[in-house]
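Hi P.,

Sorry for the delay on this. The queue was packed all week, but I finally got your sequence through. Input first:
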Amino acid sequence: MAQAAQATEDGAPGLARAATPLSGTRPSSARALLLVVLGEFVWPTREPAWSSTLLSALAELDVEPNAARKALHRTAESGITEPGRVGRRVHWSITAKGARIMSSGHERTYNWDARRTSWDGTWLLLSVSVPETQRKLRHHLQNRLTWAGMGSPVPGQWITTHWERADEIAQIVRDLGLSEQAHSFVGTLGPLGSESGIVEAAWDLDALADDYRSFVETYAGTHPHTDAECFRARVLMVQDWRRFPYLDPDLPRRFLPAGWPGYEAVRLFRDRHGAWVSRAAAHWEHLDAQE
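Then the structure:
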């Protein structure tokens, strides 16, 4: 893979590798890569990982040592990991909070093809207002509703075909202290407007399709040969892939253009991950054995 500038803890200027689907606008940070490493190699074992092993792993992903150490401590500060000691050596364990996050992320990342494909025409609509002055709150609301698969056709209104997520959406609103200024509705479209018009206004499917095609182009042409190369490829691919559950509203097929590239991307992700998983795990064990 081509080399560029090294990754820093805050995500700029980007990874020391060829551009990946979304890296032009959202470069991978040291902490994002650490979370992938933890989710792929540490959380499944339910065992702690040595600091030195994690630092070595991040170094192989072109993360600078200072950025890697900051990522370790900031991940702990967020409650995902906690440190422990054996003599002078430090290790990191996944906390109960971290395990819940890892489990949720794993479900969204790897069970993509188990999603509901039928739809009965029922929508979930959320109406919620946040003052312009509360920009941080608006940002949190937007991020969490987008992660839940909602789109906003007009300011203050959010919609999704996943009406079964009504309780999840309500909890998001409550968590942010907005329940007094929000209303949700479940039902079908009335005599005005069109479903296709709602989808077009709420989501940019053209941009999403471009991201899927870029993902396919990148990883269809990635062919690692050694265990170390498989480790690197697996982490970078998972990091790029795990953004799609955030970007993709998981719409029924009727709203997707013909030849939707998301299906090809799903198949490629599963194929490549399956091909690389054993050798990547072998390299992780090699790194751990060096400590």
